[in-house]
Amino acid sequence: MDWFKGHISRGKYNLNYFLEIVDRFSNSVRCLPCHKEDTEMGAEILFWNKITEKFGVPRIIISYRDLKFTLEVCTDLYDMLGNKLAFSTAYHPWTDGLA
Q1: Angle made by CA atoms 59, 64, 65, in degrees to the nearest 5
Q2: In contact, 47 and 30? CB cutoff 8 Å
Q3: φ and ψ of 4, to 5 deg
Q4: Is the CB of residue 6 less than 8 Å from the CB of residue 17?
Q5: Which of 4-13, 63-72, 73-82 has the lowest mean pLDDT?
Q6: Does 87 or 52 have the greater pLDDT score?
Q7: How far apart are CA 65 and CA 9, in angstroms?
Q8: Which of 3-7, 24-28, 45-49, 88-92 has the lowest mean pLDDT?
Q9: Res 8: pLDDT
Q10: Residues 6+ away with beta carbon under 8 Å from 8
């Protein structure tokens, strides 16, 4: 999972970023429009509603070290769901070899 700035028609929701999620099994990429200011719970709700409900709970999540993914709220949620959260190396976005 990673965040990147997108060129989205801002519209009434003022969406200005994407949450990028790559599925290693199918090699598919999901880009979910969101706000840069979204909190960690906002990111988790977006992930749950758009990914987990459709594809199931992943076993491993690889993410870079953004506070939105490293906070205790997120790590507790991942532990509760029974999956592992792994972090990529700083300044090496190609760590996981996909996107």
Answers
A1: 110
A2: no
A3: -150, 150
A4: yes
A5: 63-72
A6: 52
A7: 28
A8: 88-92
A9: 65
A10: 15, 16, 18, 33
Per-residue buried b or exposed e for 70-85, using 16+ beta carbons within 10 Å of the residue's own CB: eeeebeebbeeeeeeb
Sign of CA dihedral 29, 32, 33, 35: negative
**What tokens were used for 97?**
């070899």
Model confidence at 5, pLDDT cuts 50, 70, 90, reads confident
pLDDT at 38: 74
Residues 77 and 44: beta-carbon distance below 8 Å: yes
Provide the CATH number for the domain formed by 2-87 in this structure. Answer: 3.30.420.10
- In degrees, to the nearest 5, what angle opens at C-alpha 98 toward C-alphas 21 and 73? 40
**pTM of the full structure:** 0.61
DSSP for 17-64, written as a single string: EEEEEEETTTTEEEEEEE-TT--HHHHHHHHIIIIIHHH---SEEEE-
